[in-house]
Write a structure and sequence with these properties.
Strand order of the largest sheet: 2-1-5-4-3
Strand content: 15-25%
CATH superfamily of the largest domain: GAF domain
Number of helices: 17
CATH architecture of the largest domain: 2-Layer Sandwich
Low-confidence stretches: 97-103, 436-442
Largest sheet: 5 strands, antiparallel
Oligomer: single chain
Radius of gyration: 34 Å
CATH class of the largest domain: Alpha Beta
Structural class: alpha/beta
């Protein structure tokens, strides 16, 4: 047995950054060199230890069964830090249920040695031990063999402890990277589905592909688009447009620009948003509301990388990345003939779906505190937390109407009207369908009933227009400013 050669073999074959790999290589080596039937490494303390590695001859990994190991010897070594050699009967776990198990009992030579020590309450304690077994056909463990195993574990103990520090630091670095990415993305989540989304965002930021973002209203689709932009190396601007908020007859000029005299009121050349977003990202929100004739032009731009301004015969090359979003089912719209199939096929290749908040409820509490900090800064308040009842109500609510945006508005409103200065209470959390004396500041039952009627009228119009607020606004015959003022007044998301 050459301890130094064995040590060299361990450090050259093992991944020195992995505690488990170093320990496994060590157990393999001593099992081989000392002709053992099996070897194990335990960490912890007396009565609270776990097996980190269990190996048989020739590198065979073994399943660990606590009942096949004399725990009294393990506990004794943990407690005393002394070497233990014994000759005891070992009963295989599979034999214990058999009435003829006595015929299968094997007497084994046992060697238990302290691996390395630590401190607990200022006192030295054994924090790891090596357990070895070999057949009674062989001699008991000799002094030189015991010294070989002890000195070898001493030699590699610093590697094991260094690898543990390295693994902890690597984990911390990974966590910090995740936090940095989340801060740059501007979204808060620990949910697996969102972490997967963050990784996709990170990849998409590095390529020029067109992206379609889907998800319910309020899930944060524009945040995803901005994250792609923020993580990219694009030098042009990020420009956002809501396709449902532009008059159909103005959309062509808005997107692609126009030439002087191309229509009444076109008194000069004007660049469209594609041109203004040159070298950056044009975010087309609520893409499903785009008229069919504009969809044709958008498809041409995506395929050829060029635009044709209104009133011009000369196409212009643009280097603008398109990211689009919708809360509607485009496939269903294609089947109904309200969205072009060729554009849908062009967009669906690279798509991201933002899951609704009710499917990632573990995110609600981190988001609550994120918005608490955000509006403390914005409002100049200093709230520390939510009351128990407010917290419970926020955590149990489904947020089917507005998702993350609804949660944010609930918290902002509660903070504005909260009389306490430390906790946000339940009284000012106004959920969908609830009413409050603060909303609209109604001074009489008549005003409150009129407000309820107005709210229902607007909600019905939005529902009949397929959740298209622009169409709802037109069906009610309201000016844009009045319509959105009423949405805010009646707490309609």
């Amino acid at each position: 047995m050459d301890r130094y050669q064995t040590f060299h073999n361990i450090i050259t074959k093992a991944n020195v950054a992995s505690r488990h790999d170093i320990i496994t290589r060590y157990i393999d080596s001593v099992v081989s060199d000392l002709r053992c039937d099996r070897g194990m490494f335990f960490s912890g303390s007396a009565g609270k230890h776990r097996c980190e590695s269990a190996q048989g001859p020739r590198g065979v990994k073994l399943e660990f069964s606590p009942k096949e190991v004399p725990t009294d010897l393990l506990n004794k070594c943990f407690n005393t830090g002394s070497v233990i050699t014994e000759r005891i009967p070992i009963v295989p776990e599979s034999a214990k249920a058999s009435t003829s198990s006595w015929g299968r009992i094997k007497i084994k030579h046992i060697l238990v040695i302290p691996a390395f020590a630590g401190k607990r309450d200022g006192k030295p304690v054994t924090t790891g031990i090596v357990y070895l077994e070999r057949s009674l056909k062989l001699p008991s463990f000799q002094e030189r063999e015991i010294l070989f195993a002890r000195y070898l574990i001493r030699d590699i103990s610093h590697l094991i402890q260094s690898s543990a520090v390295y693994e902890a630091q690597t984990y911390q670095i990974h966590q910090l990277k995740e936090e940095v990415v989340q801060k740059r993305i501007g979204m808060v989540s620990d949910h697996p589905s969102m972490l997967k989304l963050f990784r996709k965002i990170n990849k998409l930021a590095k390529v020029p592909s067109t992206v379609l973002i889907t998800g319910e209203s309020g899930t944060g689709k524009e945040l995803v688009a901005r994250a792609i932009y923020n993580l990219s190396e694009l030098r042009g601007p990020f420009i956002s447009i809501n396709c449902g908020g532009i008059e159909p007859n103005l959309m062509k000029s808005e997107l692609f620009g126009h030439k002087k005299g191309s229509f009444t009121g076109a008194q000069s050349d004007r660049d469209g948003l594609f041109k203004k977003a040159e070298g950056g990202i044009l975010f087309l929100d609520e893409l499903a509301e785009m008229p069919m004739d504009i969809q044709v032009l958008l498809l041409r731009t995506l395929q050829l990388g060029e635009i044709l301004p209104v009133g011009s015969d000369l196409p212009e090359i643009v280097h603008t990345r398109v990211v689009a979003a919708t809360h509607r089912d485009l496939r269903e719209m294609v089947e109904k003939g309200t969205f072009r199939n060729d554009l849908y096929q062009r967009l669906k290749g690279i798509s991201l779906e933002v899951p609704p908040l009710r499917k990632r409820k573990t995110d609600i509490e981190p988001l609550m505190h994120f918005f608490l900090d955000k509006y403390n800064n914005k409002l100049g308040t200093n709230f520390k937390n939510f009351s128990a009842k407010a917290k419970e109500k926020l955590l149990l609510y489904d947020y089917e109407q507005g998702n993350v945006r609804e949660l944010e508005h609930l918290i902002e409103r509660a903070m504005v009207f909260e009389d306490d200065t430390i906790e946000v209470g339940i009284d000012n959390l106004l959920f969908e369908g609830e009413s409050s004396h603060h909303v609209g500041k109604f001074n009489s039952p008549f005003e409150e009933r009129m407000a309820a009627f107005g709210r229902k009228l607007i909600l019905d119009a939005i529902a009949k227009s397929g959740e298209n607020k622009t169409k709802a606004m037109k069906s009610l015959g309201l000016p844009r400013t009045t319509f959105y003022s009423l949405l805010h007044k009646y707490n309609i998301k």
